[in-house]
Structure formats: structure tokens, C-alpha cells
Write a structure and sequence with these properties.
Layout lengths: L8 E5 L4 H12 L3 E6 L3 H9 L4 E5 L5 H15 L4 E4 L15 H29 L2 E6 L12 H21 L4 E8 L2 E2 L2 H12 L9 H10 L7 E2 L4 H8 L10 E4 L4
Parallel strand pairs: 1-2, 1-4, 2-3, 4-5, 5-6, 6-9, 7-8
The structure holds nicotinamide-adenine-dinucleotide.
Length: about 260
């Protein structure tokens, strides 16, 4: 494999999760050292990445700015520089139509997916500005391109990520920092796919059946390529955006969605 990231350090938030781990592995295979950040589940990722590269894990809730700032300081002390950020932590939240959507849940999805992503972007970009450059990829979603049924908070948070990416790209271009986002569609098999199929089935909407297997078929039927994507189809796009192969691209949102 090319060693496009030799000598570079990438922070990966949501590093205990499926997309975070798969992407960290790909960047590590191309030479990057990795700083994993998550509220939980870091052991599995730490163990798998240690076989490939230098890696440290940091427990941190991205919705709390003081924790984020302290964690980024620790990363800087441990590695000396931060060259790349995969700003990827997120949750799906509840599934319910907007007139009965749980209010508390709306707040917590926005606090993690949007405010948390801002916290990480804020703290890491300050380091990159001081360093004289860097590359950032934010994880949005096709939910931030379309209006997903029963997912008001998640959809709103991901639309906001696409918008914040464009502003950050403009704010940071003078400092030699590129900022792009990815928009995965239906990805599986995995935690988020299973959860959304189950919860869409239970939500009782007119758009999906009450049987989870039929819901899975209905969702795949929305995809022109007639299959869900796999988690393994994400890291190559992130690596491309992190690399000099995309050196003139900033402020873009790449859809990984089978044509939706
Ligand atoms: N899997 C999909 O189908 C899909 C599709 C589109 C977008 N996404 C997005 O991709 C990203 C990664 O999702 P995934 O599929 O790997 O799911 P995942 O649940 O496996 O990983 C998400 C990770 O984020 C972490 N996290 C949650 N709240 C946090 C907080 N407050 N602070 C720090 N970490 C926190 C979780 O602990 C988890 O490890 C998310 O932003 C998600 O919205 C996923």
C-alpha cells in the first residue's frame, strides 16, 4: 500500500466505532500514527491498530468542550503535531415523526453530532493554524443531503455538518487547512444499519412496513445500486480527501451512497 501518510498523525473521533476503526486502519496502513478519541469502546480499536502503527486512545465526550480541549492538548504532548482530523463521532438518536419526537433526544443528538463536531473542529483547527496546515474530514451523512423520515434531530445535525464544513473550509483556507465532508448512505451490515431498520419498523410510519425484513428491502429499494454500502467502502474516500491527491479540494461533501 502507498505510504501517503508517513510521519503524520491523525485524530479519529468515534474511534471506537465501526467507521472510525475501519478508517483509522486504512490511514495507519498508509503510514499514519493514530490518536483515537471516543467515550467508550476504545480497547478493540487500540488492540487492532497497535499491530499496524503507533496509536494512543483518549476517553473523551466530544459534547464537553473542556474535555475536548484537554484531550487535544494531551495528543499534542504525546505526538508533537496533529496533521489530520477525522471528525466522525455521532449517534442516530430516536426514530419518531416530528410531532412526537422526544425533545430531550433532539437536544442530545445536536449536542453530540453538531456541537461536539464543532468542539473538535475548534480545538484541532487552532492547533493546525499554529502549525501552519492540516487536513480535516467531517462525517456528515446522506441524512444531511435528504430529509430522512423519522430522524429530525439526526438529519438536522448532518445538514449542519455539511454547512459547517463549507464555512470552515473558507475560514481555514488562508491557513493551509483543507476541510471536506463525507456523506455515507445506507451502510451495513453493522450497528447503525440494524438499529435503523429495527427502529423504522417500530416507528409506525406510512413510509415503511412494520416488519424489519421488509423495511430492509424497502430501504435497499431506494438505492439505485440496489444494495447497501459496506463500512469498508468508506475509508478509501476519507484517505483520498486526506491525501495530496485532493490537494485543490476543500468545502466539498462526497456522497458514498450507491447513487441516492
Ligand atoms: N453506519 C452508517 O450507516 C452511517 C451512515 C451515515 C453516517 N454515519 C456516521 O458515521 C459516524 C460513525 O458512525 P458508525 O457507523 O461508525 O457508528 P458507531 O456507533 O459504530 O460509531 C460511532 C462512535 O461515536 C462514539 N460517540 C458517540 N457519542 C460520543 C461522544 N459524545 N463523544 C465521543 N464519542 C462519541 C460512539 O461511542 C461510537 O464509538 C457517525 O457520525 C454516524 O452518524 C454512519
Amino acid at each position: 500500500m502507498d505510504q501517503r501518510f508517513n510521519g503524520k498523525l491523525c485524530i479519529v473521533t468515534g474511534g471506537g466505532g465501526e467507521i472510525g476503526l475501519a478508517t483509522a486502519k486504512r490511514l495507519a496502513e498508509e503510514g499514519a500514527a493514530i490518536a483515537l478519541i471516543d467515550v467508550k469502546g476504545l480497547e478493540r480499536s487500540q488492540e487492532q491498530l497497535e499491530k499496524i502503527t503507533k496509536v494512543n486512545s483518549y476517553v473523551c465526550d466530544v459534547s464537553r468542550y473542556p474535555e475536548v480541549e484537554a484531550t487535544v492538548d494531551s495528543v499534542l504532548k504525546d505526538f508533537g503535531h496533529v496533521d489530520m482530523l477525522f471528525n466522525n463521532a455521532g449517534i442516530q438518536g430516536a426514530f419518531a415523526p416530528i410531532h412526537i419526537y422526544p425533545v430531550e433526544d433532539f437536544h442530545s443528538v445536536i449536542e453530540i453530532n453538531l456541537v461536539g463536531a464543532f468542539h473538535v473542529l475548534r480545538a484541532v483547527s487552532a492547533v493546525m493554524v499554529a502549525q501552519g496546515g492540516g487536513v480535516i474530514v467531517n462525517t456528515a451523512s446522506m441524512a444531511g443531503v435528504a430529509g430522512p423520515v423519522n430522524m429530525a434531530a439526526y438529519g438536522a445535525s448532518k445538514w449542519a455538518i455539511v454547512g459547517m464544513t463549507k464555512t470552515a473550509a473558507k475560514d481555514l483556507a488562508p491557513y493551509n487547512i483543507r476541510v471536506n465532508s463525507i456523506a455515507p448512505g445506507f451502510m451495513g451490515p453493522g450497528f447503525m444499519w440494524d438499529r435503523q431498520v429495527d427502529l423504522q419498523a417500530q416507528a409506525g410510519s406510512q413510509y415503511y412496513a412494520a416488519d424489519r425484513d421488509i423495511v430492509a428491502q424497502q430501504m435497499i429499494g431506494e438505492v439505485p445500486m440496489r444494495r447497501y454500502g459496506t463500512i469498508e467502502e468508506i475509508p478509501g474516500t476519507v484517505a483520498y480527501l486526506m491525501s495530496d491527491d485532493s490537494s485543490y479540494s476543500t468545502g466539498i461533501n462526497i456522497q458514498i451512497s450507491g447513487g441516492i
